Amino acid sequence: MAPGFGSADLFRMIGSFALVLAIMAALLWALRRLQSRMITQNSGRRMQIIESLSIGPRQKIALIRVGEQEVMVGITASQITALAQLPQHTASPNSHASSLQNELSQLSASLSATGDPHVQ
User: Fold this and answer.
1) 47-56: strand order across its sheet
2) pLDDT at residue 26 above 60?
3) Cα–Cα distance between 74 and 84 in angstroms, integer?
4) Helix or strand run (H / E) with residue 28
5) Three-class SS of residue 92?
6) 63, 64, 85, 114: which one has the fewest Cβ atoms less than 10 Å from its Cβ?
7) What are the two backbone dihedrals, phi and then psi, of residue 46, each rounded to the nearest 5 degrees?
8) Dihedral angle of Cα 96, 100, 102, 108, to the nearest 10 degrees
């Protein structure tokens, strides 16, 4: 061993390291438990974000379910705007993606028809 570094110091370091690992494991367990509790509490909420798509810096489009109705909204740093209301139906997650893609292409077509310079 190096001079000035005794076996008591080594045991103290190993003990401290084990204590830090135990605290990290306890925090991980607590966070997982808290997360599962929050998921079960959120299942009763009436509003859910089904899907969101980033379209630029600090800009996104989101498909939101409010009760039984689905609404597509545009979100920027300063405002939220309703873009479209989707028909009520129970659909699979794959059809949500295709309906979001259809709505986006319709929105892009309508914006390019109006001559919006931001649409390519």
Assistant:
1) 47-56, 59-66, 69-75, 80-86
2) yes
3) 10
4) helix 7-42
5) coil
6) 114
7) -90, -15
8) 180
Q: How far is CA 17 from CA 9, 13, 21, in A?
A: 12, 6, 6
Non-local CB neighbours of 114 within 8 Å, separated by 6+ positions: none
- What integer pLDDT is reported at residue 1 of this predicted model? 47
Place of tokens 């509490």: 41
The amino acid at 94: N
CA atoms of 100 and 57, how far apart (whole Å): 20
Check whether 119 has a pLDDT greater than 60: no
Amino acid at position 105, single letter: S
Alpha-carbon gap, residue 113 to 88, rounded angstroms: 28
